[in-house]
Design goal:
The structure is a homodimer. Chain A is of the alpha/beta class. Chain A contains 9 helices and 15 strands. Chain A folds into 2 domains: about 140 residues, Quinone Oxidoreductase, Chain A, domain 1, CATH 3.90.180; about 150 residues, Rossmann fold. In chain A, strands 3, 4, 5, 6, 7, 14 and 15 form a 7-stranded mixed β-sheet that branches. Chain A has a 6-stranded parallel β-sheet with strand order 10-9-8-11-12-13, with helices on both faces. The first copy, chain A, has a two-stranded antiparallel sheet with strand order 1-2. Chain A is globular and about 60 Å long. Chains A and B meet through helix 7 and strand 13 of A and helix 7 and strand 13 of B.
């Protein structure tokens, strides 16, 4: 290999929004696979709210990225050279890697990515690697919606939220999405079949939510925390469930974040609030991928990839998750 | 009946701590039972944190007491006259009644109270009517402790907390109690067999908790909320459980109460926070009462009744729950 490997490295812990000094974009040599490893040329880099968490030293579910290390990310690529019996050159793999053109993989962190008929590699990568199983297990295993119940999901126009809402519709629930613009709300209702969608920036959010959920809320799938969580706590029904998938509203916080002021609703309404991480469900991924593939094939599930060009744009693209500029699964087309 | 009935009536919604104008102590006629009713002469009045909630118009799990109405409370008494086939004169009953010497009961709200051998009426009333089943179902059904795990309980010297800790010991857990004085802490360790107890007023509570729970906390049985909850959230283990039984730290609040600032731990550690109300478990009371009776008989469970004399002292006694002056199950000996 004579090519250059471009690598994003973490240079400092960000305060608030990621700025241009948070990471450096370095030119390095392409690594050589050792015994049991393989070399991956990255095609797609997934951008996720958790990337921001990994950059920080806030309490988190795996060690933060060390200063100076290549930035951690979920990637999809082509195996160029393999010294592992698990994969062969030319195969498409995805896994937990780094923000770089090339990287070494091993069977511990990468696995083959299969694309069912009619599903592109980018779609299969975005849907099956993270967002799909997150939505599937978080909604069905943690949220346990029953037909006829009302499900509310925040960040509904995002990768996970858009799938959560559609699965809830498939399960015959009333589905209300919370998203950050009228355009996104229209997309949720007109394209994805949500029963209603509300701009979460409305100052009268609790009232709007109350009107959109005349029978109250049985499941609130929380991707954001903060004021949206407080508004939902007000509308929860007795024995409601709140799968807690993300708290994106506070990932850029520069000071201690206040907890939900309606916390007492958990007691009064006998709610169950349960945090989950999709990594705990890896052994059951085939179940989720099977169901998601079936729904895609039957036309019941739409998945939108929001593809941005160029590894050099990874940082500016990641910021979009926090400003709400993306719709659907945000990823970088690397090559 | 020529006797006078003394009745506590709610006169205004309290702000902060209950004061002497919150209720009036009136002298009224003894009521006459109608068809299907019976007349109860009260022996014991249970004082519970939820009494304070019922006086307020904060969001709660049943309607608040209306202004002018007799104050709602759990009572135990003797049937003086019955026009119901369900009970006979002379029988001991307990149920959801009012703060008064005499009151009318019906099978919908009162049931017979049985005292197993060696258990006094006051003990049976305090243990079987509320505190015992609350501790039993909250810990075992909601908290799901496994042998060898660490269980922390707040308000540990209170009626529910003291039973929670002892049941957790019976289930072979390490048990750490949080209570409001050194004297209470000594009682928990020396008399009830807790592994450790900590004064929750210590300024270094998180550190003290960390030291008392070297393997982290698997179950935090929350009776109080507030800063104690935040300290526990810091020490929780992955997949920990937080049965939420009460939030006494905020019942006297005069302004909006901030939520737990460590709320994000729910996500990061995949915690389950679940509110519950013992009333949801009424059909399963016999199971709890059977187990609690057995443990009492075997000497594995101690139950302390903190009995105060005189219905006229109900308000001043109730305040003790909030100042931490009681130890064990607080109740009024009415007659």
């Amino acid at each position: 290999m004579t090519d250059v490997n471009r690598v994003w490295r973490l240079r400092k812990r960000p305060t608030g929004m990621i700025d241009n000094d948070t990471l450096s974009f370095d030119r390095e040599a392409v690594p050589q696979p050792g015994e049991g490893q393989f070399l991956v040329r990255v095609n797609y880099l997934s951008l996720d709210p958790t990337n921001r968490v990994w950059m920080s030293d806030m309490e988190q579910y795996m060690p933060p990225v060390a200063l100076g290390d290549a930035m951690r990310g979920v990637v999809c690529g082509t195996v160029l050279e393999s010294r592992s019996p698990a994969v062969a050159a030319g195969e498409i793999v995805s896994g937990l890697g780094v923000w770089a053109d090339y990287q070494l993989g091993s069977p511990a962190t990468f696995h083959k990515l299969a694309s069912p008929q009619g599903v592109s590699t980018a779609e299969a990568f975005g849907l099956f690697t993270g967002a799909g199983p997150t939505a599937y297990f978080g909604l069905l295993d943690v949220g346990k919606p029953r037909a006829g119940e009302t499900v509310v999901v925040s960040a509904a126009a995002g990768a996970v939220g858009s799938i959560v809402g559609q699965i809830a519709r498939i399960k015959e629930c009333r589905v209300v999405g919370l998203a950050g613009s009228d355009k996104k709300c229209r997309w949720l209702v007109e394209e994805l079949g949500f029963d209603a969608a509300i701009d979460h920036k409305r100052p009268d959010l609790p009232l709007a939510l109350h009107r959109a959920c005349p029978d109250g809320v049985d499941v609130y799938f929380d991707n954001v925390g903060g004021e949206v969580l407080d508004a939902c706590l007000q509308q929860m029904n007795l024995n409601g469930r709140i799968p807690t998938c993300g708290l994106i509203s506070q990932y850029n916080a520069t000071a201690a974040v206040p907890g939900p002021k309606n916390y007492a609703s958990i007691l009064v309404k006998r709610l169950t609030v349960q945090g989950f991480i999709v990594l705990d469900y890896v052994p059951r991924y085939p179940e989720a991928i099977g169901a998601l593939s079936d729904w895609m094939r039957q036309g019941k599930l739409k998945f939108r990839v929001d593809l941005r060009e160029g590894l050099e744009n990874a940082v500016s693209a990641l910021r979009m998750l926090f400003t709400g500029e993306n719709t659907g699964k945000l990823m970088i087309h690397v090559r």
